[in-house]
Each structure stands twice: as C-alpha cells, then as structure tokens.
From TrEMBL:
HotDog ACOT-type domain segment(s): 1-53, 115-228
GO terms, biological process: acyl-CoA metabolic process; fatty acid metabolic process
Pathway participation: Lipid metabolism; fatty acid metabolism
A GO CC term assigned to this protein in UniProt: cytosol
Protein name per UniProt: ACO11 thioesterase
Phylogenetic classification of the source organism: Eukaryota, Metazoa, Chordata, Craniata, Vertebrata
Compartment list: Cytoplasm
Keyword ATP-binding: no
Record field: catalytic activity: butanoyl-CoA + H2O = butanoate + CoA + H(+)
Keyword terms, alphabetized: Cytoplasm, Fatty acid metabolism, Hydrolase, Lipid metabolism, Repeat, Serine esterase
Superkingdom: Eukaryota
Length: 284
C-alpha cells in the first residue's frame, strides 16, 4: 500500500487457555479515491498475563458466539499444539531427510557463500523506543530485526526483496532503556523463488563485562518480484560448514511445515475438519 491510503487493523481474542491467549490480527487498506479494499496480511499473536512479581494469572474461558468464531476457537487449539510440538516436528523431519546438504541445480546460477549475506547491527534503546515501564516495544524490536534481515536478503539477490512471511517471532525476555541490542541476520537457505533469513536479537547493558541476553529470534521469508509482479528465480546459496549446514536443512524443513499448514488451512471445513480431537489413531 502507499502513502495516503487508510490502514485498517482488526484484532480479536480467538481463544483463552490457562495462562495464555491467542489474538488474531487482520490488516487491510482502503484507497479513499477508488474505494478499493484489499487485505494485506494476517497474523496470530500469543500473549500471557502476568501478576505481581511475574506470577502467572489464570485466564477466564472465552465463549465463541458466531460460526466463524467457533472455527477460529477450534483451530486456535491446533495452532497452539503445533507451536508446542514445533521443535519435535522439525527434529523428526531432519531425522528423515538426507544428512548431506544437496544444493538445488539451477541453470547458469553460481552459489553465493552464506557468509557474504551476514549482517550485524547495534541499536541503542532510547525512551521513545520503550513503554511506560521502560521495556522496549516489541514492534520496535521487530522493525529493527526486519531491517537487518532485508539487508541480508539484498546481499544474496542484489535487488530489493519483499517480505512475504515471518515464522514465529519468539520473545525470550525483555530489554530496557539504555540497553544495546545486537541484531544479527544471515540467509539460511535460498529456494527457487524465495529465501529464508534467520534473525536474532541480543541485549546487553552499558557494562561490556555483562554477557549478552538472547531476547528474540525469528525466520523471515523474502521474495524478489519482477516488473510484472512475478517472483524471480534466486541464486543458489552455499551454506557454511557445520552450523550453516544445520540452518540450511532446518530452513527446508520449515518450508515443508509451512506448505503443509497452508494446504490444511485451504481445505473446506465441510470436506476436511480443520480441528479434530487428537488420539493415537489420527496423529498423522
């Protein structure tokens, strides 16, 4: 969307669990001149309630009213289960996939060393970046992380990449005013028309002797569009030995999970139930 258009953001609690809740967010824009409405993105955020001294607060259950709310209520439990078993699912996929890293073959393309896409930046948390409690806004951290991820993606494709999706922003801890945030990004894998960039954020205080705190991590998918709006073919990536090969293979596994999830959600509720009671017989 462009300057002068109206952005509409809608958020609603889909389901409340014991101490956490899922909030669904939808973003769309409206062109005031043409009257056109268009959906931009959709996201799900998990919030937890904290009491005094960080104690857990038990949430009241939410009762869905409309048919749409009932579907979201049901799928929220599936999404929560998928988040909880995500590490195990990833580990299972890696176990079943070949151990050797197999680079995709593309005509006329030369593999770009992953090391050339590495980016590191340092940001100082100032009062405008934090809330009334002095904790850094989550959105500010996300914006900084997207900046370094975009630079890393640009170094691979030598073009202006477009952010297509974000896989699990995981806030591991807070940062405060006065902290320095070290933001790191590197391209983990480049597929034919998309690439995955891994980003992490670490925080430390003024005293350099204090060890850095890992406060956030995410995986971002970028594409490069041609003049007609179609995804361009990307160069191959040569992963670094050792840890880089692990990230390369994990990126492929995450792509499979995304595609499988997209297929399941695309099915009609009347054809394939999106959420069913789990038992040992239907675990697949």
């Amino acid at each position: 969307f462009s300057v002068g258009q109206v952005v509409n953001i809608k958020a609603k609690v889909n389901r409340a669990f014991n101490t956490s809740m899922e909030v669904g967010i939808q973003v769309s824009y409206e062109d005031l001149c043409s009257g056109k409405h268009c959906s931009i993105c959709k996201a799900y955020a998990t919030f937890v309630a904290q009491g005094p001294l960080g104690s857990k607060v038990r949430l009241k259950p939410l009762t869905p009213q409309t048919e749409e709310e009932k579907i979201e209520y049901s799928i929220a439990a599936e999404r929560r289960r998928m988040r909880l078993v995500h590490k195990d699912t990833l580990k299972d996929l890696l176990t079943r996939s070949p151990q050797e890293t197999e680079l995709e073959t593309r005509d006329g393309s030369v593999a770009v060393p992953a090391e050339k896409t590495r980016v590191e930046s340092v940001e100082l948390v100032l009062p405008p970046h934090a809330n009334h409690q002095g904790n850094t806004f989550g959105g500010q951290i996300m914006a900084w992380m997207e900046n370094v991820a975009t630079i890393a993606a640009s170094r691979l494709c030598h073009a202006h990449p477009m952010l297509r999706a974000i896989e699990m922003f995981h806030f591991r801890g807070p940062s405060q005013v006065g902290d320095r945030l070290v933001l790191k990004a590197i391209v983990n894998n480049a597929f034919k028309n998309s690439m995955e960039v891994g980003v992490s954020a670490e925080a430390y205080g003024q005293e350099m002797s204090v060890s850095r705190r890992h406060i956030n991590s995410a995986f971002m998918t970028f594409v490069v569009l041609d003049q007609e709006g179609h995804p361009r073919t990307l160069p191959m990536l040569a992963p670094e030995p050792g840890d880089g090969e692990r990230r390369y293979r994990e990126a492929s596994a995450r792509k499979k999970i995304r595609l499988d999830r997209k297929y399941v959600v695309s099915c009609k509720q009347t054809e394939v139930p999106l959420s069913v009671p789990w038992d040992q017989s239907n675990k697949v």
